[in-house]
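User: Assemble these into one structure.

Assistant: Restating your components, then the assembled model:
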Amino acid sequence: MNPVFHRRRYNEDTRRRAQPQYWWFMPMGEGNNLVIVTGIPGVGKTTVITTAVDMVKKKHNETVIVLNFGTAMFEVASKKGLVKDRDEMRRLPTKTQRQIQKLAGKSIAQKARSARVIVDTHTLIQTGNGYLIGLPEWVVTALEPKTIVLVEAEPDKIAARRSEDPTRTRDSQDVGDIEVHQQMCRAAAVAGGTLTGATVRVIKNRQGQVEAAAADLYQTLME
Amino acid sequence: MNPVFHRRRYNEDTRRRAQPQYWWFMPMGEGNNLVIVTGIPGVGKTTVITTAVDMVKKKHNETVIVLNFGTAMFEVASKKGLVKDRDEMRRLPTKTQRQIQKLAGKSIAQKARSARVIVDTHTLIQTGNGYLIGLPEWVVTALEPKTIVLVEAEPDKIAARRSEDPTRTRDSQDVGDIEVHQQMCRAAAVAGGTLTGATVRVIKNRQGQVEAAAADLYQTLME
Amino acid sequence: MNPVFHRRRYNEDTRRRAQPQYWWFMPMGEGNNLVIVTGIPGVGKTTVITTAVDMVKKKHNETVIVLNFGTAMFEVASKKGLVKDRDEMRRLPTKTQRQIQKLAGKSIAQKARSARVIVDTHTLIQTGNGYLIGLPEWVVTALEPKTIVLVEAEPDKIAARRSEDPTRTRDSQDVGDIEVHQQMCRAAAVAGGTLTGATVRVIKNRQGQVEAAAADLYQTLME
């Protein structure tokens, strides 16, 4: 067994000790096995997810379903005969789009009753005109996640990774802006947790230690 | 045309490229054309708003309506015969006050269906007894903003501006407190975005660059 | 009278001046006299509460009721015959548990109509598997607090206090983690404020100045 699996922020004793004191906040065992995994571009989110999913496969021969929220929305809308292709999605009225988002959320939550599911998405998406909300109230409450994960990295490391990506502008490499973005993502995750009762977990993806970050996600998935 | 109009955090190519990937988060084109503009005292919010409104007038000969939420509340309450003057407002029962807030929000949202509207307000108002909530759930969901703007400035610049204002106490010039206040305002804006789906935009009002900040707000208004 | 009672972030003049401008955000005088007091382990929350409660007793001969949310939940559940001991609470279905949480919240809110009440709890509880939400939407809206207080201390002071506690692991003394935890607690308090309209107050518990912190809490209780 890989030694990183033993790495814990608090050791198991600490956790057990904490439980009697805070038992009334403890999320229940039943319900959805759904983890929302978020992280800003350049934190290495995809690698962390892939590695954690591999760990579950190797250790328990179980397949974690990794879903994209947009794909789930398109499936709902096309089944209802509302759209033929993705381009048409954007032309739907706001109300219809929100209904589809709710239905997609509920459909994913349904899947998570019989399998471990990761929704790979964003809390806040940076655009030239502000941050888009990745987990609005009607989406996060439909999903009923057990945990919202924030994959984070050091702002300067994120800037460095982005600078190696030729499709990214230099503007996206401002360390101060990256710091603010990560800070606001934390607030968004906490807002989502407040609305649903989901735990919020920050997973640090330290340079060269993706296995440790994946082990944290593995732990959250298997809990 | 002023060169500041060309200034963008991400260039247009970046934005276009981002759209297909995140199309399902994109706010729809229809609905309210309402932007909530917030900022703590000393960031220069009023100047940014005035300059942006002038830009819209000059470039498109269009008048942006700038509204104060308190005034809208008073209008609703006095029309209903509940109050004769503003002082009476504060003596209304909490439930009545909340109903008036909702009605004021809906009335502003209605106006924003046929005109560009700015609601000039606060996310969190600092008092000697804590932060008052400027955008509680029932207000922000009634307003249905397309964007919540946070006008920000460097904490030391805010402290300096406040020190020039003889009506302000020295306590209000603590740079650490200003930093915490701005940080909490970001969390409040993100909570508002989560409840409504509104985008959240941080606009930096850098020293001597109010035109650039106003150009950002102009862009958000015209989107 | 202790000089610390005169210590104010803004002086009274500032507050009075602020009121006409922001009258429409002012919380009303009626309703619940309930203050939620939160703070991460090591900030000295219990001492601040005890000292403030003593101040109220000494100056007004009034008893502030200090409640633990878990105890209130257990009372509701055992009265309903759902459980015999606390261990059984954790085995209740999630839906039942949430109903109990709501009922406990409403029962506390009821008490706060005729007495000053402090709910001693957490915004976010750190565990080895992420942060648990101490004030989810259905709890905070049932409680209807007038104020959510964040007792804070300098991260290095918290780390030092924790290092003196032999039951705490060294992991819990990472200053960076403590800083992030406090920052996320602020976001959680702001989310609670947004959902309820409660004011959010940061009370600094500075080294050797617990009386000043308690005076701030005293002020919030008596307001």
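Chain A is about 50% helix and 15% strand.
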